[in-house]
Amino acid sequence: MGRIFKLIVILLVLGAIGVIGFAYLGDMSPDSQEQRIEVTLPDGTGAAAGAGSSDASTKTGTDAGTDGDTASGN
């Protein structure tokens, strides 16, 4: 009975060492790949159409005036 218990303990210790070793040394990093997904916004523009535009070029007259005042600290 004592020999079986000793064998079980040794196997458990070796298994734990194996799991810990695999966690530190095993290469489990996922393969990375670029994903591009076309998105259609509620106003009908797609990702390709809006990619080149910036917020500054799409501001209205009132937006541009208030941003200028905020940026200058007035």
TrEMBL record:
Residues 43-74 have a biased composition (Low complexity). Residues 39-74 are annotated as: Disordered. Keywords: Membrane, Transmembrane, Transmembrane helix. The chain crosses the membrane at residues 7-26. The keyword Transmembrane applies. This is Uncharacterized protein. It comes from Thioclava nitratireducens.
